[in-house]
Amino acid sequence: MNWGWFKDLLGPVNDYSTAFGRIWLSLVFVFRLLVYLVAAEKVWGDEQKDFECNTKQPGCTNVCYDHFFPISHIRLWVLQLILVTCPSLLVIMHVAYRKAKEERLREIQGVNYRRIYPNPGKKRGGLWWTYLLSLIFKAGVDLVFLYIFFCLYRNYTLPRVVKCELPPCPNVVDCFIARPTEKSIFTVFMVVTTCVCVVLNLIEATYLIGKR
């Protein structure tokens, strides 16, 4: 992922967000995307290479790793970040559509045309609904991924040793996860940050409805 490209893409969201939306965007950039790029990706870089089982049986280590890590934390976080930021892009596209419609009217009717959207970025009408639905969608995506993480990795933590008895393992073997404490700390950090983002989305949605 390219930090600069991502920042340029979501930067205009600030222009059309409330104060809560700006705080949410800052959290996504600093505490989720930046932490992922700087630290988390390196922490999980050795998860398969240093996953060891106390057996020489060919294929046993690979099968056990696939069982305990069906989906990588890193890939899940990337998918989560992509899905959670897409609704913000829809808001930008909606504003761009309003501006383009105003421009077409100005070209057709001249300078003294009757403006449909005096302020295209103002959250009224369809844009209000787009913005509200984007908040609900973002909160829903984060909650779904929290549930997925909980189902795959109980309590969001990783044990030091896991026991595996899947074929072709000859018997019950012990497998050792690389740096489980460090991985657990980063996982809990990302989970807490996600929960804060969900709360901010719900507060902003409540604020929009109350203001209207």
TrEMBL record:
Signal peptide per UniProt? none
Q: Which Gene3D superfamilies match?
A: Gap junction channel protein cysteine-rich domain
Under the subunit heading, UniProt states: A connexon is composed of a hexamer of connexins.
Residue ranges spanning the membrane: these are 20-39, 76-97, 128-153, 185-209
The record's principal subcellular location, in a coarse class, is other
Keywords attached to this entry: Cell junction, Cell membrane, Gap junction, Membrane, Transmembrane, Transmembrane helix
Name of the gene this protein is made from: Gjb5
What's this chain's function? One gap junction consists of a cluster of closely packed pairs of transmembrane channels, the connexons, through which materials of low MW diffuse from one cell to a neighboring cell.
Q: Which domain of life is it from?
A: Eukaryota
Q: Which GO terms label this protein's molecular function in UniProt?
A: gap junction channel activity
Q: Which residues form the Connexin N-terminal domain?
A: 42-75
- Give the UniProt family note: Belongs to the connexin family.
Localization, per the record, is: Cell junction, Gap junction; Cell membrane
Q: Give the way it sits in the membrane.
A: Multi-pass membrane protein
Can you list the GO cellular component terms from the UniProt entry? connexin complex
Task: Tell me the Gene Ontology biological-process terms attached to this UniProt entry.
Answer: cell-cell signaling
* Organism in which the protein naturally occurs: Setophaga kirtlandii
The identity of this protein, by name, is Gap junction protein
